[in-house]
Design a protein that fits this description.
The structure holds 2 protein chains of 2 kinds.
Chain A (H helix, E strand, L loop, with lengths): L2 H10 L3 H23 L2 H17 L10 H19 L8 H10 L9 H18 L4 H11 L5 H8 L3 H22 L16
Chain B lengths: L5 H7 L5 H13 L1 H15 L9 H48 L1 H36 L2 H25 L7
Helix pairs in contact in B: 1-3, 2-3, 4-5
The chains are: A mainly alpha, B mainly alpha.
Chain lengths: ~200, ~170
């Protein structure tokens, strides 16, 4: 029996310390999923806490044959999808991330220079913004695939879809992201304007 | 422009041999769509996971404690309302019988027997009336009355379904 299952079993028997350990261990993946799904740190914090609350309330329903992380991410993803559906006129904010981004991302020790790091961050922010234009379930599938390295079968299990549906959703989402990326890409100016100095 | 098989290679994250890599590189130079697909793929793979602000577990424990307290309060008040309501209803319906019982036990037993007889007789009469109505009523009752009756039945059914759903609700994904 692995360590994780031991903690889960102890938590199922009402051991608070064991549950606290599980929260400590999984807070980052759950928060990350919520953050990428909802786009805002405040909503993500609230959704992550609600996820753990649901995990706590329904721990007795956990099937030991399934990986615990997948079960928990499944709860988080469904909660976020429901929340996104309720947001009828919500605006997906990326400005907020610009302000708060550094508080949630570790500094890159391998960053060669500030300018390159700034370009990288800009691209990451752009991608984060584009994620908001995807359908809730597609977004969850992309996040699980690329941020959490879940296989298509695991994503299918977590989102209650078939493997082929996951594959098709991932392809659709990637195409959509690429299309938006292409549309929003700043086009380099190659021709000089008539009034502009050749020095520019 | 034909994007295949390059698009599929990019979407499936397939490992490519050197010749396929060269072909893909060449295609990417001319195809904006596949180039954007490759770029977003790289971005997706390079992006880092966000983590919560420090103290998440402590905040969660506070929330859990507050939730448990609210749950206990809700259960307590629910149980209190249920018990007090039930006892009040019981006292209200049993009050006349209890008064009589205190006055004369024989009269009380006769009352119970007459009550049982009344219920049996009423059920019998209701059945007879129902059977007669079923034969006669369709011709007399206007359609809108049937509509109201059917709507009321549907409403009761809906209420029943919602109650069952609320009682057995489990969040998705659990």
């Amino acid at each position: 029996m692995n360590d994780e299952l031991t903690w889960v079993l102890q938590a199922q028997q009402g051991n608070q310390d064991a549950f606290t350990y599980l929260v400590e261990t999984y807070q980052k993946p759950v928060y990350n999923l919520c953050y990428r799904m909802l786009g805002e740190p405040e909503s993500a914090e609230d959704a992550a806490q609600e996820t753990f609350l649901r995990v706590y309330q329904h721990l007795h329903r956990y099937d030991r044959k399934r990986p615990f992380a997948t079960w928990m991410l499944s709860i988080a993803a469904h909660y976020c999808i429901d929340r996104l559906r309720k947001r009828k006129f919500a605006i997906f904010s990326i400005d907020q991330e610009d302000d708060e981004g550094p508080a949630f991302e570790l500094p890159d020790p391998a960053a060669p220079d500030p300018e390159a790091e700034s370009v990288k961050r800009e691209a990451r922010d752009r991608l984060h913004g584009l994620l908001g234009s995807l359908d809730g379930t597609d977004r969850a599938a992309v996040i699980m695939r690329y941020w959490h390295d879940l296989s298509e079968a695991e994503i299918a299990e977590a989102l209650h879809l078939t493997v082929s549906a996951v594959k098709s959703r991932l392809h659709r989402a990637r195409r959509e992201l690429a299309g938006l990326w292409q549309e929003e890409k700043p086009t380099p100016r190659t021709q000089r304007r008539p009034h502009e100095s050749p020095a520019f | 422009m034909n994007h295949q098989p390059f698009e599929l290679w990019l979407l499936e994250d397939q490992s490519l041999d050197p010749e396929q890599k060269r072909a893909l590189q060449f295609h990417l130079q001319t195809c904006l769509h596949c180039s954007a697909l490759a770029e977003t793929g790289l971005q997706l793979r390079s992006v880092r996971a966000a983590g919560p602000a420090s103290g998440f577990t402590v905040r969660f424990q506070k929330r859990l404690t507050a939730h448990k307290l609210a749950d206990r309060r809700r259960k307590f008040w629910g149980m209190l309302i249920f018990v007090v309501g039930g006892l009040s209803l019981l006292a209200w319906s049993a009050a006349p019988a209890l008064t009589r019982l205190a006055a004369s036990p024989a009269e009380w037993i006769a009352l119970i027997l007459s009550y049982i007889f009344f219920i049996v007789a009423s059920l019998q009469a209701l059945t007879d009336v129902g059977l007669v109505l079923m034969r006669v009523a369709p011709g007399f009752i206007p359609p809108f009355a049937w509509l109201v009756f059917a709507s009321a039945l549907a409403g009761i059914g809906l209420l029943w379904i919602i109650s069952i759903w609320r009682l057995t609700y489990v969040p998705r994904g659990v």
